Amino acid sequence: MATVSSPVINKTNFSDNEPPEVVEARALARRYRLPYIDLLPPDKQSPISYEELAGIPVDLMLRNQFVPLKREGRNLHVGMADPTNLEVLDELENVLNVRIVPYVATAGAIDVILRKGDATQRVMQEAASGFKISLVKETDQGDEILDLDRLATDSEMSPIIKLVDTVVYNAMESRASDIHIEAGDRDVSVKFRIDGALYQKVDPIDIAYHQTLISRIKVMSELDIAERRIPQDGRFRVRYKGRTVDFRVSILPAAYGENCVIRILDKEQISEEFKNLSLDVVGFDEEDIKRFRLYIKEPYGMVLVTGPTGSGKTTTLYGALNEIRNIEDKIITIEDPVEYQLQGIMQIPVNEKKGLTFARGL
After folding, report:
1. Which class does domain 20-125 fall in?
2. How far is CA 220 from CA 122, 165, 233, 235, in A?
3. Which residues have a Cβ under 8 Å from the Cβ of 18 and sit 6 or more positions away?
């Protein structure tokens, strides 16, 4: 949990001539016993650490309204518009792998620093180029890498492309398992599922952009953009930070328009988590784990594992495979998709386009 240490800050006395935003920020600081810091002192050097600034995604700072001040060991001191938001503090600590020490600053000053500073402008350009992800399209000759921007022929689609890229990027940076896009009567909400719970990580989008947003995702997933009355399922694959990440897409018509759920399948991240996976860490009680281990070692029969998204089905099944694999038995799995490659097991990935379905595999 983020804490506060005694910083060296501007201790200017309160003034009746101060802007309302500054007065409110000082009041917030007093209320929560946090230090207030002036990010744009008129006659002093800025307290911003531009070295730290260059290493943090600008989108992350803009979205969460913070700027770095200094680093002391694992502690990162930051000026924030709302340091009382524990969800944001936890996200920053997880994403940046630091211990956040918050100070109260005005949102206006943070915006000026992030958008107008010369040094920051270069960082923004680098960060913007970092949002460009590559779509991987499967062909008869193998995987063809396509830049997402090249798929647009209409100039009006460009903002939507950047929006989808940024949503996907932020979801992976937040280690989300799913992206939920839900249409309302006036706007579209975008939520990330993190550790089983949904969080709204993106500001509401005007409903006018809803169909274009869904159409963009349909194009990426090779779905029918003209069909809006029936559910559709698809998938796409992107290159992100040198690794390939799979996405499964489900689109369902609803009262205010089509809703979309995108499941993120980061195989490399799963590989690290599953490297030494055993059933002991799945969470069964002692009696249940004994029965389950007995069932999976039977010579024939079926073990059915069910549950909602994020409940641990994949973890349970891979844990079971880790326990029963040996050099004497040949184990074959049919998976959609293969989320983690296990040594010594024949894993068959479903490919409906090529005719390899679950039934055909059996």
Report:
1. alpha beta
2. 30, 11, 12, 8
3. 26
